[in-house]
Design a protein that fits this description.
Length: 141
């Protein structure tokens, strides 16, 4: 321990400056928040089988290019349904009480805003609906 203290003598405790080529990434950029109220549908595998054909038709009718904007609402969102475009739907349960968790917030990669999460994925926060004091669960999809 004494050797570690000696190594720190004479240092002011200020964090090192970031290298010049990283500086721009640490500065906030002005932006505008635009709020839209949307209907968010659950992923088709989460629907009862008898409703899936109607959802498939709605997807075809609203987006002929095949970009499923019905069950994969782009952008950031509060609440709604999680997307499951990388794996099959699963239920996240609260680590304290075992209650199925609900989606609280999604931060999705977005070309327009220049935001990349992981490998163009989504960071999702889930919360326990039974007790707000239980810990959140984060999921990178």
């Amino acid at each position: 321990m004494a050797g570690r203290r000696r190594a720190l003598r004479g240092r002011d405790g200020a964090p090192p400056e970031p290298p010049e080529y990283y500086e721009d990434e640490f500065l906030p950029e002005p932006c505008v928040l635009s709020v839209e109220h949307l209907t968010d549908f659950p992923y088709r595998e989460e629907l009862p089988p008898e409703l899936r054909p109607a959802l498939d038709q709605l997807v075809r009718d609203t987006d002929p290019e095949g970009q499923d904007s019905i069950t994969r609402v782009p952008g950031w969102k509060l609440g709604g349904w999680p997307t499951w475009h990388l794996n099959h739907p699963r239920t996240l349960t609260c680590g304290r009480c075992g209650t199925p968790m609900t989606l609280l917030f999604t931060i999705a990669s977005d070309d327009t805003a220049g935001i990349v999460v992981g490998r163009w994925g989504e960071l999702r926060l889930f919360t326990c609906p039974a007790d707000h004091t239980h810990p959140f669960t984060a999921d990178l999809h």
